[in-house]
Amino acid sequence: MQSTDVSEAAKAVVRRNTEEVQGGGDFEVFDQLFADDFLDHTPQPNMIPTKEGVRDLYQRLRTAFPDFHADIHWQAADGGLVTTFKTYRGTHLGAFLGVEPTGREVQFETVDAMRVRDGRIVEHWGVANLFSLMQQLGGFPKADS
């Protein structure tokens, strides 16, 4: 397979995760897309850096924000390493990161890189603007203007 084909196939795997698992809550697809030896190099607070840790995070997000979804702005790939810039959106209807439901609509940006090998996600690195999310939920005060 040519490098371009590998990159496009890897981008499709990451896009499926974003749309069908994170956005649609389809955990059967999650099991298809994540390798059993998956490693998260930048886990979120109180999360283990494994496949089960990511499943737990995605389930907590879907519980806290039942309409959770992402708008993918762009993706770039170098072989099986896919970088994605996206904005997550959702309505806060369940507890998340210690903040009880507010009913607020929120959005926050994320840049992540996922390595795909043999059609499965094997590694992740990412930066999410959780500070902005916590401000929107009232967990951190907004700076005075």
TrEMBL record:
SUPFAM superfamilies noted in UniProt: NTF2-like
InterPro entries in alphabetical order: Cyclase_SnoaL-like, NTF2-like_dom_sf
Entry's Gene Ontology BP terms: polyketide metabolic process
Top-level taxon of the source organism: Bacteria
Protein name: SnoaL-like polyketide cyclase
